[in-house]
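Board notes (copied after class):
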Amino acid sequence: MAKNLDSITDDASTLVHGITHLQTIVGLRTEYNYLASTFKNYLSVTLMPHPDKFYLIEIVDDPRGSRSKSSVQSASSITGQSSVTTITTTEALRVTFQLGKRIGPVAGRFGIKESTGGVGADLYLFDDRLMLSADIFDMRSNQYPRFAGRAYLAVYKHMVYLLGGVDDVFNNVKTQGLAGGTTDWFFGAQLVFNDEDLKTLLLFGGGSAASSASK
């Protein structure tokens, strides 16, 4: 029993150590698409159990919408079998969940990108104040996969970034009804909060709420 208790204690200690050293980074990003004259918005959460490994989770409000496909098959003694495929575009939010690994200044990502399969890569320069990012995803909405490239520049510490880039580089013609678009340029800004920033915000917000409640 003593040996089992020691083993359980060691396992629990390892688990708690891993959780307490899990770094959380929250980002709020908005991009203005120049040709489409619309905004695209992101809420991202990056979980880093180790400095060189991370999980990227995003909720994306894309003006192109979300694509769904359904097929109905029917059988007839006269015409034989037939199939009708319906593709619907809705305003549902898109979701990203990717696993990432960083080696030096380069990070690779793969998994779900905006509710489709995708891969991406990031290049960090000048003490991570400049980041070049590229993603390939969404193989179904248009003739070619959707390729997007971005450049992020930190203008205030590692909290405020200005960004710009190009979306859907390979597709010059819009596919109707498939939540597909065409090449577009965009620019925007991003706010990033790490663990210490979030603690400060929570303490400030909690103190303000307690002060209001006491009045």
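Comment from the instructor: The two ends are 55 Å apart (CA to CA). Residues 11-19 have pLDDT under 50 and may be disordered.
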